[in-house]
Amino acid sequence: xxxxxxxxxxxxxxxxxxxDNPALAAAAARGPVVPxxxxxxxxxxxxxxxAASRWWLHHSLEKxxxxxxxxxxxxxxxxxxxxxxxxxxAKETGATHVAWNRRYxxxxxxxxxxxxxxxxxxxxxxxSFNGSLLYEPMHxxxxxxxxxxxxxxxxxxxxxRDEPAAPVAAPHKLTGxxxxxxxxxxxxxxxxxxxxxxxxxxxxxxxxxxxxxKRLEKFLADGLTGYGRERDRPDHDGTSALSPHLHFxxxxxxxxxxxxxxxxxxxxxxxxxxxAEAFLREIGxxxxxxxxxxxxxxxxxAPLRSDYARFPWARDPVGLRAWQRGRTGFPIVDAxxxxxxxxxxxxxxxxxxxxxxxxxxxxxxxxxxxKWFWDTLVDAxxxxxxxxxxxxxxxxxxxxxxFRIFNPTSQAEKFDPDxxxxxxxxxxxxxxxxxxxxxxxxxRKLALAALKTLT
DNA sequence: CTGTCATTTCT
DNA sequence: GAAATGACA
Length: 455
Description:
The chain is mainly α. 47% of the residues lie in helices and 6% in strands. The protein folds into 3 domains: 124 residues, HUPs (Rossmann fold, 3-Layer(aba) Sandwich), CATH 3.40.50; 121 residues, Serine Threonine Protein Phosphatase 5, Tetratricopeptide repeat (Alpha Horseshoe), CATH 1.25.40.80; 147 residues, DNA Cyclobutane Dipyrimidine Photolyase, subunit A, domain 3. It binds a DNA duplex through helix 19.
């Protein structure tokens, strides 16, 4: 059969898009493409996707399947083990190549490395691409060759580099396999909740590439200019709300980078100011988190600063439960936790406040907070979650100093001055609204005393 | 003394 | 980041 073009399995993971998808572009340039999504959560243990993530994934896969069908290469859905599914599919299609975009979480790297080796030993070509970061973690290091552990020098280093490559447009037309392939439907994967807790989520979000593009365009038009000032106001709509779209790769960071630069008049990134600079800096934090988890793979489960391993965390299941359900008696904390519960998302300023409350006022381990966020956030991302919680607990990279203990009342006065955010998510005047579960001034003293034990 | 504002201190 | 302390009207 000379003249036949090689078939590529496109293994989709956290790159649920057609736009700026380097593995897809490489596969499509070569010949027919067989896009496949494999559901194998146990391979990501102990950080298997949480309930909110699975909800998002279900809807994102529906959109992705429709988009690939329209482009001419229907999406195949299989269950893991991933290697078995890829091998079976290669056999069914006669594929000679397998392509994917890299992920950087420790368990996934381990799995992917083993899979690559096995596929190559089968005689297949296996190739991976960078589709989810601006720069590869192995390419960014200090002068001494070590990973950055402080954000500002990390960010300066990124700014001094060649710009990330321009994004590649989605292919208009794809060639699929010659014959139809067996595929699971999305429902049997069991990603949706069995009890209907997702009604507010449905109203809040549009998972999928089209939803991501719409969100980005709206942000560029209405949000970017004022972002620097508005991003800290949970009572306003000042953030991009792109985090879940970015997590699932429904939009690429390169696309964002170049879109923001263009919207800001095409100036070099190092010369940007105001909202554009502030927003790209946040994309830089996302990048920083991924690089840190890559270089310090134990930190999803243990503090980066090892002295914190002996911090005397409290065992307080009652307090933890009150925090989770938004019943601490501190309105800004409860509003945040209830926004999270209802929408699968929380404003970043409020994430810092509720995190400080859990680890400093209740002295419950940051890992308990990380686990709760992992299950409830639609943007749950192992790198960002790890960085965020260790930052709040003071045990991570570029961490908050031990003495930075947020006062929930003064934080609320500062960032929710009219009380609109609190009013929206927690009715503190309700008859059953709880009394504060701790005395903040007392809790602060106890936290400082506990921190003293580390020296 | 009492309130305000700036500075220091907190492991 | 904010409580405690100091300077001063």
